[in-house]
Amino acid sequence: MSEERKEGSESGGGPAADENARSGEDSADRRPPLQARLWLRDLAISLAASFLLITFLYQPVRVEGTSMLPRLDDQDRLFINKFVYHFSRIERGDVVVFYYPHDTRKSYIKRVIAIPGDRLVIDDGRTYVNGRRLREPYVPRIYRDDRSQPEIVLPPQEYFVMGDHRSISSDSRDFGLVPRKLIYGKAVFVYWPEADFGVVR
To answer: 2, 27, 67, 82: which is the annotated catalytic residue?
Structure first.
């Protein structure tokens, strides 16, 4: 009886085992190759990391107006870094985004011309910081103006900003200094339109 049971076990279990094996092979055949699965995994991780990076470190904004020509035009789309100034200082020449001092529901984008402690004077459109004329290659000759600004020494936590299109820009010459607490980002990269694509310098 033990032999019959053994034979029955072999005859009954053999085909089922073969079917299971074939089913497993078919299932394995239907799965993507290991290399493809690893590639898809890496792609998913990269996309998730990019999403988190853009969401928490960068913010897309749209330029409204032409006061930052020639680098930034009306309706340009760019990324601003929202956290860089938590770890580094605001420097002269940085293009920053800030809440308008007289109405914080509005945001402006301008270039930092003078920082706390600087002695600033503008004479007939020529800008002097700490007794030296400021080199401003970002302001083409056709965008210059002849406005003047009496000498001031910037107090702590206050910044003097101007647009690169000096002849039409409303900036610190009009609305005054910008408090540090209102500056919330640094312009980094234009992503649209294609003609303006690139780093903001």
So the answer is: 67
The tens place of each residue's pLDDT in the chain, 201 residues long, gives 433 343 444 444 444 444 444 544 454 456 668 888 888 888 888 777 777 666 678 889 999 999 999 999 999 999 999 999 999 999 999 999 999 999 999 999 999 999 999 999 999 999 999 999 999 999 999 999 999 999 999 999 999 999 999 999 999 999 999 999 999 999 999 999 999 999 998
Cα gap 85→121, rounded to integer Å: 26
Look up 110 and say whether it is catalytic: yes
Determine the topology of domain 59-199 in CATH.
Answer: Umud Fragment, subunit A (2.10.109)
First to last CA, the chain: 91
Hey, what are 30's tokens?
């239907």
The domain locations on the chain are 2-55, 59-199
Question: Is 27 in the active site?
Answer: no
Write down the catalytic residue from 88, 110, 172, 181: 110
> What's the whole-model pTM score?
0.75
